[in-house]
Amino acid sequence: MSQDDLEIDLDAIQRRMDGAMTALKTEFASLRTGRASASIVEPIQVDAYGQMTPINQLGTVNVPEPRMVVINVWDKAMISKVEKAIRESGIGINPVTDGPLIRLPIPELNEERRRQLTKVAAQYAESAKVAIRNVRRDGMDQIKKAKAAGMGEDDQKMWSDEVQELTDKAIAAVDKVLESKQQEIMQV
């Protein structure tokens, strides 16, 4: 058994945790408050041509005015599917179809809608935490395999502590980003 088999790849674990954070920030970008933004439809997937496809691959997304997002769907057969995906996405916007265009009027945020958005943000953050915990579990599994391959107790403890420290930092970062986003949403 070589020494390399007993090494745990902390960089890979860190990269995967960073990936969960990047995904969270992308989801948070879709929770624009107040002003319209093309990123509000980025996380929405449409069942198109037998697979889930992002809206921006089915049409052009524009923001012609501060409270309006317009999607120009290229394939007329996809208009109803795009409209349905938007309705079911939970972004709280009712699409208006006008020929090949789907207009998304961004409503003024009332207190109730702000609270709903903070709950959506919390759900996104919880998903990121679950992804981070899954990476931690994979790291701990690597450590168990290395122990079975002959890693000593001291090394096992050291690697476990390192993986836990990475996990704690990542979870704290998610909490911080969530708190910041919730304050932004609640700001009138």
Notes on the structure:
β3 and β4 form a beta hairpin. The protein folds into two domains: 3-27 and 110-186, Topoisomerase I, Chain A, domain 4 (Orthogonal Bundle), CATH 1.10.132; 35-105, Gyrase A, domain 2, CATH 3.30.1360. It is an alpha+beta fold and 188 residues long. It contains four helices and six strands, in the order αββββαββαα. The strands form two sheets. Strands 3-4-6-5 form a four-stranded antiparallel beta sheet, covered by helices on one side. Belongs to the RRF family.
> What is the correct CATH architecture of the largest domain?
Orthogonal Bundle
* Order of the strands making up the biggest sheet: 3-4-6-5
Helix content: 40-55%
DSSP strand tally: 6
- Rounded radius of gyration (Å): 22 Å
Query: What is the CATH topology assignment of the largest domain?
Result: Topoisomerase I, Chain A, domain 4
> What is the oligomeric state here?
single chain
Mean of the pLDDT scores? 87
Beta-strand residue fraction: 15-25%
